[in-house]
């Protein structure tokens, strides 16, 4: 990964103005100042730069946060480019550059498992167009038709004469050619770079300490800041006594940050934090000072039976079906707040002057980070930019809010011209999350005399992420994302079961705790509620959970295929090892079909050991199978961490958990073996980073029920609920 | 001024005695490969070796490092990423975001130095570093490879 730091955007702005006025393809992403920009290697197009030494630089609009998107997108572009993979590197354009070029790189947002599936088309076309231009440039030089030339591994050969030239030699000429419109793309079956289990491009620096993360940012003269924002949601900063800490070592300034926070700026972060810890602060506790998890739960419970609810999916007459059922099954479930707990706490470096503002940070959406920076900087957007640094984890936190960018810019405004790096302590990070929303569900199922599911009412109650983060995304008050994976149609997440009488509705209840997108988002609880309850229904009907599901998935062949695949590989229907029990789950989300079979053992003391996971995914196409496997493995670590441990609770308006000692997460000793089945069926592009997380918790809870006869309906799993001695 | 021996080089640093070694390494010595994750020795991202012993540097006041003790950070694990664990990490494409991996590697290196052929249970008992991306199974596989053991 090459990241270019530039102390000034002036060269860039001048260069882009010249570009807009003249050449369409001659634009260079600037290095340091105008001189460097002039010596920058030529662009073939916005996506591809080839240096004279034949190094290929592929521009990456989406961001790498561990999920492998950087390597996958480079594979897609390199495939169409016919590049020599050993010469491929990558770089990030900035959102300012994207704006200046009329968003030539499209959307920067890296969330919703969209990194590859929503940009693969134009990234591949970018690679294909660049290849055609390079071939044309060589053909022009030789005075032969381009159709007589072949490109392979970065070398263009004229078939008739055997003459050949490398990309680096013709790149500059290629960049002056007109770009082909809508270049044809390869059939994925002909892929040689994409689709292969290639090694990631970004590993070497992560093995020797040289990878620069946002928290590692250094600039000449940089100061460091530590912040405390009001820990009570809705509270404000009343006062602080700066005089008490101003003479502490290294301290430069104590500053108010907006209405709610105070920060200490010092030469080092540790000195800033030490002074902050010693700083007397008085809070205006605001309207939520007595809010507790118990009160939030009551609010949600009321929603379970409320008259008014937004309808997400409906068929037939569910009330009549329940009234006429041979057997009615009811159950209430809940899913608590979760914290992202990225390993790298939130941080950002900002430099502000009355003329311009620059930010360096780890973000899943640099364009949103720029919008936040612009607002905080009080400057026009063309005077601001955000430089992307490597993320120490994202999981949705770094797309849900750029509160840390806002704070960093506000702090930097107190020190014009001096770069200031703001780092949140782990405690600050945990108290100011954008938490997985809290929800409950009341499930009512109607079985006929043969044990068929003839009616299902799924009443969701709880928090809307969009209502907090993007109210403009609501549809007449309804948050469509609350029905993720439960839709009647579409490409994102379809409810797979055929149930003649169906009602899925949502009573929105929004406690004043900021929610966010947390890996899997609303699919997590939706899959948990539905898939656990399907097992309860199968049990009530006296049927095998696999057969019960199969009977309802006849018209959902892709849902069925992944379910069958895990059942077969896990040995469903054959005896498990002594003391080991199995559970199943399937779901569709972010365009992909996923299923899992969990094998667990529950000890007499109630402790749960998840031994083995068999997981299948059909994401349509697979760009790098070993990285898809890595994402599946990781999704189970994240999902099982939530199932086994994850719970954020509220007391007196504030989060009770402040660090990993009170917010435990899964470690190696608890990690099961994960066997992956990657079964792309083609014809569509689904996501990879999130989907298998949906089936982690329900498969395990179903296995626990099989092991103990106890149905746990509240997350996380609590040992005391399963204790037999 | 404090004198520290870091990766074989004596460094003089200006820090208060209660400053955690982690922040001295990151801010005064300028070695940022060692990461801050929790500040309470719970996550292991800050793991370094002190005379060969894996130590969570975020909770160790720099004044407790004794004169002449050798501090080894990820930058000093090998001169050219040639340590058997670094090679195994590359072979298994272990890192995702990578933020915890300096600590994972340093913990694993101390483990293998003390126990060259660990069992899976011994690996899990020693490797308590948190990885939120969930690379645990690849971490274990890479340790096995470096140790020349099969799981």
TrEMBL record, chain A:
Annotated InterPro entries = Ald_Oxase/Xan_DH_a/b, AldOxase/xan_DH_MoCoBD1, AldOxase/xan_DH_MoCoBD2, AldOxase/xan_DH_Mopterin-bd_sf, N-heterocyclic_Hydroxylase, OxRdtase_Mopterin-bd_su_IorB, TAT_signal, TAT_signal_bac_arc
Domain Aldehyde oxidase/xanthine dehydrogenase a/b hammerhead: where? 208-287
Molecular function terms, GO-annotated: oxidoreductase activity
One Pfam family recorded for the sequence: MoCoBD_1
Its protein name is Aldehyde dehydrogenase
Which source organism?
Alsobacter metallidurans
């Amino acid at each position: 990964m090459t990241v270019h730091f530039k102390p000034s955007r002036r060269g860039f702005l001048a260069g882009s103005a010249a570009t807009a006025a003249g050449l369409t393809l001659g634009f260079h992403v600037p290095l340091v100042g105008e001189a460097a920009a002039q010596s920058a290697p030529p662009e073939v197009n916005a996506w591809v730069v080839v240096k004279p030494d034949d190094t290929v630089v592929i521009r990456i609009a989406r961001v790498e946060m561990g999920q492998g998107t950087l390597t996958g997108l480079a594979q897609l572009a390199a495939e169409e480019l016919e590049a020599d993979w050993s010469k491929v590197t990558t770089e990030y354009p900035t959102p300012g550059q994207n704006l200046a070029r009329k968003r030539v790189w499209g959307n920067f947002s890296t969330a919703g498992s969209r990194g590859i599936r929503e940009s693969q088309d134009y990234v591949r076309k970018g690679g294909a167009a660049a290849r055609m231009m390079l071939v044309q440039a060589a053909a022009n030089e030789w005075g032969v038709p381009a159709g007589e030339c072949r490109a392979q591994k970065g070398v263009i050969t004229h078939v008739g004469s055997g003459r050949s030239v490398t990309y680096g030699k013709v790149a500059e000429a290629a960049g002056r050619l007109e770009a082909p419109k809508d270049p044809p793309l390869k059939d994925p079956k002909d892929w040689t770079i994409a689709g292969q289990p290639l090694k990631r491009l970004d590993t070497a620096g992560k093995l020797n300490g040289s990878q620069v993360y946002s928290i590692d940012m250094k600039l000449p003269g940089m100061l460091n800041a530590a912040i405390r924002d009001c820990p009570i949601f809705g509270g404000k900063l009343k006062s602080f006594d700066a005089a008490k800490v101003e003479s502490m070592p290294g301290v430069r300034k104590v500053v108010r940050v907006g209405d709610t926070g105070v920060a200490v700026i010092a030469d080092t972060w540790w000195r800033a934090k030490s002074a902050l810890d010693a700083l007397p602060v008085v809070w205006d506790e605001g309207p939520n000072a007595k809010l507790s998890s118990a009160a939030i739960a009551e609010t949600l419970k009321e929603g379970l039976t409320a008259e008014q609810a937004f309808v997400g999916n409906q068929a037939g007459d569910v009330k009549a079906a329940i009234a006429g059922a041979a057997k009615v099954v009811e159950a209430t479930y809940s899913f608590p707040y979760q914290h992202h707990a990225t390993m790298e706490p939130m941080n950002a470096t900002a430099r502000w002057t009355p003329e311009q503002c620059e930010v360096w940070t780890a973000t899943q959406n640099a364009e949103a980070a720029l919008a936040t920076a612009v607002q905080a900087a009080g400057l026009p957007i063309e005077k601001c930019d955000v430089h992307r640094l490597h993320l120490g984890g994202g999981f949705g936190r770094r797309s849900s809010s750029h509160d840390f960018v806002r704070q960093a810019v506000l702090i930097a405004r107190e020190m014009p011209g001096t770069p200031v790096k703001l780092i949140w302590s782990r405690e600050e990070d945990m108290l100011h999350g954008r938490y997985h929303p809290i929800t409950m569900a009341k499930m009512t199922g109607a079985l006929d005399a043969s044990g068929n599911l003839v009616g299902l009412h799924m009443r969701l109650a709880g928090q809307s992420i969009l209502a907090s983060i993007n109210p403009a995304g609501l549809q007449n008050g309804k948050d469509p994302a609350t029905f993720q994976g439960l839709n009647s149609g579409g490409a994102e997440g379809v409810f797979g079961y055929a149930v003649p009488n169906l009602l899925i509705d949502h009573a929105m209840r929004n406690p004043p705790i900021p929610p966010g997108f947390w890996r899997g988002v609303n699919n997590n609880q939706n899959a948990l509620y539905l898939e656990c309850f399907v097992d309860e229904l199968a049990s009530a009907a006296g049927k095998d959970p696999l057969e019960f599901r199969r009977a309802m998935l006849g018209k959902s062949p892709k849902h069925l295929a992944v379910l069958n695949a895990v059942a077969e590989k896990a040995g469903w229907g054959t005896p498990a090892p002594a003391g080991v029990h199995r559970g199943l789950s399937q779901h569709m989300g972010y365009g992909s079909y996923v299923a899992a079979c969990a094998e667990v053992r529950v000890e007499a003391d109630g402790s749960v050991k998840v031994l083995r996971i068999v997981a299948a995914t059909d994401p349509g196409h697979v760009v790098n199978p070993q990285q898809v496997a890595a994402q599946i493995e990781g999704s189970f670590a994240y999902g099982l961490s939530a199932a086994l441990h994850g719970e954020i609770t509220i007391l007196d308006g504030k989060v009770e958990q402040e660090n990993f000692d009170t917010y435990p997460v899964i470690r190696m000793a608890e990690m099961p073996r994960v066997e992956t089945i990657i079964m792309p069926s083609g014809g569509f592009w689904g996501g990879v980073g999130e989907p298998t997380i949906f089936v982690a918790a329900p498969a395990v809870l179903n296995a626990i029920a099989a092991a103990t006869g106890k149905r746990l309906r509240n997350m996380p799993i609590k040992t005391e609920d399963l204790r037999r001695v | 001024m404090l004198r520290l021996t870091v990766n074989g080089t004596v460094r003089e640093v200006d820090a208060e005695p209660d400053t955690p070694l982690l922040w001295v390494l990151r801010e005064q010595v300028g070695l940022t490969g060692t990461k801050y994750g929790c500040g309470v020795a719970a996550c292991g991202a800050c793991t370094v070796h002190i005379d060969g012993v894996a130590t969570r540097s975020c909770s160790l006041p720099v004044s407790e490092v004794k004169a002449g003790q050798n501090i080894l950070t990820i930058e000093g694990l090998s001169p050219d990423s040639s340590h058997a664990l670094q090679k195994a990490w590359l072979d298994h494409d272990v890192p995702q975001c990578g933020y915890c991996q300096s600590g994972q590697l340093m913990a694993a290196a101390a483990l293998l130095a003390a126990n060259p052929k660990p069992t899976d249970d011994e690996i899990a008992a020693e490797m308590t570093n948190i990885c939120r991306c969930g690379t645990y199974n690849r971490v274990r596989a890479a340790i096995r490879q470096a140790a020349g053991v099969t799981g």
